[in-house]
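New to this. Look over this protein:
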Amino acid sequence: MADQIKTLDDLKDAAGLPEAEAVAAPRTPVRDALNRSYATGKRKDAVARVWVKPGKGAVTVNGKPMSAYFARPVLQMVIGQAFKVANVDGQFDVMCTVKGGGLSGQAGAVKHGISKALTLWDPELRPALKAAGFLTRDPRVVERKKYGKRKARRSFQFSKR
């Protein structure tokens, strides 16, 4: 038998393996008992836990309305980008808790979490959010401080005398 196998195709036939099919399994919506989708978003040191459910577009962050928690309009715009790209502006209510980092990192974490939760709610929204780059976690974090330096790269001031 070993002398009959001369090519990889002969080996595959001898092993009796079925043909590999590149058919991706269809994604199914993931929702809990309260008809919500949950996702975790991260940016810098901030971590956001986000729940998305159908509603009128209310966004609650740590028990406060978005306009009270994120007072700067730029941060409110960052959070709303995911809804605009997916064309579901004003159709979902968001409840999230966020901790760590500063306000800018927290807004980015909430946007990341909203994007992931929307794809779990409706898998049809995934291509638009993926193309916009909202499903990719931004890997940039603060560089660590090195010994013998004042900060990560800044040295102490040199004194000649």
About this structure: The mean pLDDT is 91. Helices lie at 8-15, 66-69, 73-86, 103-121, 126-132. Residues 112 and 133 are 9 Å apart (CA to CA).
